[in-house]
Amino acid sequence: MSVELRPLGDRCNIQCRYCYQEGTRHAAAAAPRYSLPGMLAALEELGEPFVLFGGEALLVRDEDLETLFAYGLEQHGINAIQTNGALIEAHHIDLFRRYRVRVGISLDGPGELNLARWAGSAGRTRRATARAEAALDRLCREGLAPSVIVTLHRGNAAGERLALLAGWIRHLHAIGVQRVRLHLLEVDTHNDSQGLRLNDAENLHALRSLRQLESELPGLRFDLFREMRDMLLARDAVSSCVWQACDSYATRGVRGVEGGGERSNCGRTHKGGVAYLAAPRRGYERQLALYATPQERGGCAGCRFFLMCKGNCPGTALEGDWRLRSEHCATWYGLFEDLETELAAAGEQPLSQSPRRAACEAELTALWQAGLDESLQSLTRRLGVAAA
Amino acid sequence: MSLRLLRLPLAIGAPAPRLQLAAPRLAWAGRVMQATWTPRFEAVRAALLAVELEQLAQGAISASAVDCLAGDVSALTALLRPRELAAIPLGAYAAAPPDSADPAAVVLNYRFALVRRERLPLLVEALAADDLERLLQLAAFPACCRAALVRALAAGEDLPLAIHAHGAASAAGPASWDSPAFSAAGAASGSGPASAASSALAAGPAAAVNAAASPIEANALLQPLGIAAVAHVPCSAACTASQALGCERLERGSAAGHAQAMAHLRAALAWPASYSQRNGIAEVQTAALRLVQESARREPQLTYRWHPAAAASIAAGGGADAAVADRTADTGSASPIAAGHSAGVAAIAADTDLDNPAAADYGFASLHAWRMRQAAVVWEQSRRLRGGGSFIDLACGDGYLLQLVEAETRRLSVFGLDRSEAQIARAQRRLPHRSLCLRHGDIAGLAAQAPAGGYDFALLRPEDLLPLPEPERRHSLRTVFGAARQVLAYASDQALRRHGSLGGLLTAAGLAATRTPAAADISAEVQPLP
Ligand SMILES: C[S@@+](CC[C@H](N)C(=O)[O-])C[C@H]1O[C@@H](n2cnc3c(N)ncnc32)[C@H](O)[C@@H]1O
Ligand code: SF4
């Protein structure tokens, strides 16, 4: 679970061509509310560590950033920010150090590989990319190595570009980056993501190549592979939202706090450009339907990886319809198979191969029917199912 | 008080074992919508209940039903007593409390049939006999709607109310609404059969699109929330009997002092709305909210229905109400981003300039390391550069750093020098508009090329001077400082390794920083050591 604080809502200094927020950004009729006390009150009520998010969080004025970081440090001993990196200045790095801010920078690669993260013109995009790269480099030199989010698409992971991306990640490793988060492109109709999508084979090829790269780079981890492996072993206590039976009416993986302190849903499910407010309670209609619906109809019936994947993020659902499984199914499936084979070869038993898998599925779907949920870790323990 | 009117006086469990009665989950399309419509819905529900109770009391209908939380039973009783009405429990079902986020929290919802005291025996008899037909008759369902619902339930329909109504409506085709009340509502949303043809919702190959639109559809869509002009479940969008009853009810409500609530109801029924059912999940979307209901049946069937007005009115950013300000829309292919689509993708398809093999010659392990260093130098010096002026990179390589300097502000004109002809050629390709200012050569020739008044900035790699014999090095430095007002220096990875730090490199080259650099700096303004 993460709390995303979005002080300025979707507002951003750049306009990534594929950004899932473009729909709500362009449709917004009124400026979002902004109230520092409102945000602090909402954070207080939630009582959990938060990530400064956006849009672009560094558009917030410095005094307010400092107030928010000071609050985070006092309450939780730690802070986090997710940024496109282009606005980072020396004084921000100073704040990051003083307030123990873990920095995540989104960059899809060097130079042209990052062109989809468009800043309005070729020149401005080049500058924004270079500034983000420079800030990343600087943070590493200051001993504050950020994590990096790379979204895979035609501009950075197709054909020969994949090798360039890999070379760049090698360099990130050399300067001290330890965590890279990989996103598969989420395709929306309200932005340019269609033209950037990789097909399943290309996505799988890219992920397999990067996984190979990971084995050559001691100390650098792509969160994705470790998480998927952990899911197969029913170790899902800290897995990310996409594996956690997300409900687009009340995204639990991501809970947003807006600039006026209002609660919001994860923007990835705002398909029609409408930022629906979170429904008060979660539901599992999607997972239950997927479990029972044949795969040729957009469901997951019969898939041995269903317990781990659960149809994945509704924001990536086929046809943009949250009721269907993720359009990246074939990619996840291929990767789960790779990991499963390796685990089995290493003498471990992935849950997908457990003779008690059906029992676990029955238990979990029964819980969902009752509006409840449980981690695989606790469920397998309770049922005495050995995984791992 | 939370009472929800659903005129289905059927015992829970039978004869409609799987008819979904619980209120659907709802999400508002923004806080303005929520703030505006939550109280209006409350008012509409209260008014509809009052109208229903009056109709029961007057004998216009014999039976109805409400859902009621335990805490509201006494309030309900208080409403029934003066009207000589009785309530018969039809059963209870557990559901999450409407506003609780706690997944474990459930409350009991009671369903009561409401009936005039003297007609109590009739209702009890019909309930005891599980006589669905009779029960619906007591609830004043028109014959056609009665038959349709009996048929649907016998066929094992287990769908939410809206879906049932839609299943029936899809077969029936477009309606024509002549009643003043309804056509007013229709006009407000710009809907109607005439615009039906323009409606199309891309919904995948399995989609069955039915563009028929009528207030009865909206009625069916919001009915699970208790927001409906027609109290029974209409058999189709074209049902004239239902239409007449709906109109009558709206008028009755207005006449009974609920004019405002009825106006809100009319507005809600005029919302563009879509309904779809897929793999057993039904979803209704309107400009103000969306709601979802699950059904046990996992039909592949995909039925999208869309009020023709929806696309147009949403795209225009408008709607039935001023509160629509909070509504956001899918602007589709007309979006400004889409306009840039082809340009963006074309640019992305172009070759990269990430193929320069010369990094090692410049003291870096990889092109990425070299480029990132150049980006870091510009980042560190950015503030200084934004003032503008002329800038020369004395080892410009393929011109990447100059390109970044140019991007800082238009007020900078850039010049480059490099000992490699091949690199200058690359730089000229990168910066064709500065072609004449990018020259092959070394520092010795700098003075001859300098613009009148010299450069504002010169960027030096001190490590390039170290291999030179002492007099030549000193001469080079004199040349640089003679040609530029501010001299900036940076180090390659190789030089940093060799000299421990930027400071170490500067000293070795006979230079000093004008101000002590920060520990992480890899560039500085420099001056010659005395
Ligand atoms: C919406 S941004 C907000 C925070 C900040 N502006 C940033 O860029 O990191 C959060 C993350 O979502 C990613 N993202 C945006 N649109 C996406 C899409 N269509 N598919 C996959 N990831 C996407 C971005 O690349 C970024 O890493
Ligand atoms: S919509 Fe996707 S990203 Fe958002 S919380 Fe759900 S799973 Fe996570």
From TrEMBL, chain A:
What the entry lists under Gene3D superfamilies is as follows: Aldolase class I
Q: Which SUPFAM superfamilies match?
A: Radical SAM enzymes (SSF102114)
Write out the entry's keywords from A to Z. Answer: Iron, Iron-sulfur, Metal-binding, S-adenosyl-L-methionine
InterPro entries documented for this protein? Aldolase_TIM (IPR013785), rSAM (IPR007197), rSAM_sf (IPR058240), Sulphatase_maturase_rSAM (IPR023867)
Give cofactor(s), names only.
Answer: [4Fe-4S] cluster
Radical SAM core domain boundaries: 8-146
Tell me which CDD domains the record gives. Answer: Radical_SAM
Query: Could you tell me which Pfam families the record lists for this protein?
Result: Radical_SAM (PF04055)
Q: What family does the Swiss-Prot or TrEMBL record give for this protein?
A: Belongs to the radical SAM superfamily. Anaerobic sulfatase-maturating enzyme family.
Q: What is this protein called?
A: Radical SAM protein
The organism is Tahibacter harae
Automatic annotation (TrEMBL), chain B:
Which InterPro entries does this one have? Methyltransf_25, SAM-dependent_MTases_sf
**Is the keyword Transmembrane in the record?**
no
Q: Which UniProt keywords apply?
A: Methyltransferase, Transferase
Q: Which GO terms describe its molecular function?
A: methyltransferase activity
Task: Extract the Pfam families matched here.
Answer: Methyltransf_25
Q: Where is the Methyltransferase domain?
A: 392-481
Biological processes per GO annotation: methylation
Q: What is this protein called?
A: Class I SAM-dependent methyltransferase
Organism of origin is: Tahibacter harae
The opening ranks of the lineage are: Bacteria, Pseudomonadati, Pseudomonadota, Gammaproteobacteria, Lysobacterales
